[in-house]
Amino acid sequence: MNKNDIDKGFKNKDISILSKTITMLESSITSDYELASFYSNLNVENKSKIIGVSGPPGAGKSTFLNSMIKKLLESQKDYTIAILTIDPSSEITGGSILGDKTRMGEIATSNRVFIRPSSSGSFLGGTASRTFETIKICENFGFDYIFVETVGVGQSESLVGSMVDYFIMLSNPVAGDDLQGMKRGVLEHIDLLLVNKCDSGMEQKAKIAKSFYENTNGFSVLVISSLTGLGIEQSIKTIEEYFLKYDFSNRQSQIVKYKEKYFESYVSEKVSKIKKSYDLTTSSKDKDVKIFVKELWDLLIKS
Q1: Which domain holds residue 290?
Q2: How many CB atoms lie within 10 A of CB 297?
Q3: What is the pTM of this model?
């Protein structure tokens, strides 16, 4: 596939060409990556609304997206939406589940929805290593909304906050448990916290959790149920009110922040790989600390 094919495909809104372009972006073949990355660096006039969705395992991120996007499609007949879902990879095998698409059955067949699952690999930050460039390619393609569903919640996952315009966190209806282990680097990026699963006898716990979050943090909090639809319309209204006032000129500073965060995560990823392949206990024995650190640094540079 060449540049003319991609240009024609993007102009005609050909999803198969978009998918192939992203595959080329993720390729280890330099020529493929360089061609695809060209489409992540274009300054497009029509800006997509880019939204991150995070939360601990079991909080119902994919089910929430299915419920909310279904409502968006019903209310806005001309909206097109991209969903980039990041599945966790096994620390041992490197394999990932890639099952988010199955939990979005109601919207997965819509010709106005593009769902792209990717594996996070060993990359820290809750996203796949090419996620930011994929977002930009999707924006160039012309989607109205781009959702990025991340692996889960952790300190390094604040990287997603530098990629998106709006950051949603989902929580289970148990006050404090989900945020207790979170670092300030993640909390400071949250724009909206949704206490999900307010159904099946969990209504009172969800209300208690909402009060807890409202009293201890500075972001908006809503109670929702992705199954019954409770709070979904209010969530959409809150998001759209935000974008009515949003200054898209922030995108340049967003790119700078992302590059800084990406560098930190990139180094962490390389260190993680070295630790797996390098016997730290044996190799450090009887060595001066400076020599040992230099050996590790040389491995990092070469990797």
Answers
A1: 255-302
A2: 11
A3: 0.81
pLDDT of residue 122: 46
Same domain, 73 and 201: yes
Pick from 183, 171, 236: which is nearest to 209 by CA? 171
Structure tokens at 215: 């009293």
Collapsing DSSP to helix, strand or coil, 171 comes out as strand
C-alpha–C-alpha distance, residues 33 and 269, integer Å: 20
Task: Residue 247: count other Cβ atoms within 10 Å of its Cβ.
Answer: 7
Of 248, 267, 288, which residue is a domain's last? 248
Check residue 255 and give its pLDDT: 73
Using DSSP's 3-state secondary structure scheme, residue 99 falls into: coil
Say if residue 79 is in the same domain as residue 220: yes
Same domain, 148 and 92: yes
- Identify whether residues 57 and 31 lie together within a single domain: no
Inter-residue long-range contacts of 70-79, CB under 8 Å, 24+ positions, other chains counted:
70/106, 70/107, 71/229, 71/232, 71/233, 71/236, 72/145, 72/236, 73/107, 73/110, 73/112, 73/113, 75/236, 76/144, 79/112, 79/144, 79/145
pLDDT tens by residue, 118-176: 755 544 444 556 888 899 999 999 999 999 988 665 544 567 777 889 999 898 887 55
Same domain, 68 and 209: yes
Total domain count, the chain: 3
Last residue of a domain, one of 223, 248, 273: 248
- DSSP-based three-state secondary structure for 87: strand
Query: Could you write out the three-class secondary structure of 117-129?
Result: EEECCCCCCCCCC
